[in-house]
Amino acid sequence: MVTQKSFRKGCASVMDVILCCPKICLIITIQAIWCWTGPHRRPRPRVRQQRPRRPRPETPPLPPRARALTIPLMNPEDGQVTLSQSQSAFFSKLPLELRRMIYDRALGLSTAHLMYACPRIWARRCTLEGCRHAGIDRRDGETSFGVSLALLRACRQMYVRSPALTGMNQLCGRYSEAIESLYSSNTFSISTQAYGAHTISKIPLFFQPQRVVQIRKLHICWDLLDAGLDLIKPVEHHFPLPSWLKTWKIISDMAGLRELLIEFTYTYPPTSRYTFEFWMEHQIEIFEPVKCVVSPSTFVITLPYRELSTDLDVAPSSCIFRPPAQDPFLQV
Fold first, then answer.
1. pLDDT tens digit string along 52-77?
2. Is the pTM of this model over 0.85?
3. What percent of the residues of the chain are helix, what percent strand, and what percent coil, each to the nearest 5?
4. I need a labelling partner for 91 at 20 to 30 A (CA). Which of 49, 83, 103, 125 fits?
5. How crowded is the C-beta side of 332, counted as CA atoms within 13 Å?
6. What is the three-class DSSP state of 96?
7. What strands lie across the sheet with 142-143, from one edge to the other?
8. Distance between CA atoms of residues 157 and 238, nearest Å
């Protein structure tokens, strides 16, 4: 006879079998998969033992064949051997005066147009005689400085990149000896037309102080329209006084200047007479910074209007004021 206690035991046994069979099957399945696909079943790479290779005999070069147009090779003579700078005849036999004349001929004795175009100042050599400034868009007569400046720049880069090499101090000395002619023998021409309005203010950023003082001749074509000096309203504070004073401060710091020519011009006729009235009323204040420019012995300023006075007292500066060749209001 089945009692209630035995019935409960039978039900518990059946429930254990029902719950444990899936777990047992899952464990058996995982073990079977592991046995067939485990890491121990993966093929191990075979390490081949490399055999020493026998060196192949080098193929001997073919003997030169005699040809009708073949130039016979000759040993270089003593005069053809390339020597270092310290041993070359140019530096060992020529005096410094003659070397400087050669530097001036190769790097200078011309007009160099400067123009600031971000991110640097561009320089172009002008071959036109009596050139004031060819402008920004015109390239008439403008050429590059050629291979002479490229060689000089290469010497500078060699010294900067390898300052510890033997003989680099002598190389720097040759560079310093020649670089002075690039600044002292050229006439630097600056125009404020188009994008050149900021060229003067960028000179201290791109020229080293020891090079700025080596500039001897400077010509500036100061266009009132492009430089922002042409007033369109009768208000005094529209005149760019801070930039005006900064420009004259930069010019006065050029202690080596010997010739300074500044010409105030109009590329196009003035838009109004406010600028004329302002210059007539404040001419003394406008040219007050000229008194600080005392280095150049030849200093000429061409005024923008004929009605402006040419007898201003700007001592101790040697500046001379001249009227313009043409009235800007009569330009066609």
1. 777 777 777 777 676 666 565 566 55
2. no
3. 45, 15, 45
4. 125
5. 0
6. helix
7. 142-143, 120-126, 111-117, 187-191, 217-223, 259-265, 298-302, 319-322
8. 45
Give me the amino acid identity at 315.
A
The C-alpha atoms of residue 262 and residue 293 are separated, in whole angstroms, by 12
With beta carbons less than 8 A apart as the criterion, state whether 250 and 220 touch: no
**DSSP states along 148-214:** HHHHHHHHHHHHHH-TTSTTHHHHHHHHHHHHHHHHHSSEEEEE-SGGGGGHHHHHHHHS-HHHHTT
Phi/psi at 82 (5° precision): -80, 125
**Cβ(306)–Cβ(319) below 8 Å:** no
* Of 295, 292, 302, 304, nearest in space to 329 by CA: 304
In contact, 286 and 306? CB cutoff 8 Å:
no
Amino acid occupying residue 282: H
Alpha-carbon gap, residue 91 to 38, rounded angstroms:
81
Q: What is the pLDDT of residues 197-231, one digit of tens each?
A: 678 888 888 888 898 999 999 999 888 776 566 65
3-state SS assignment for residue 49: coil
| Residue 166: exposure state from Cβ atoms within 10 A (0-12, 13-18, ≥19) | exposed
Under 8 Å between Cβ of 90 and 99: yes
CB 143 within 8 A of CB 124: yes
DSSP 110: S
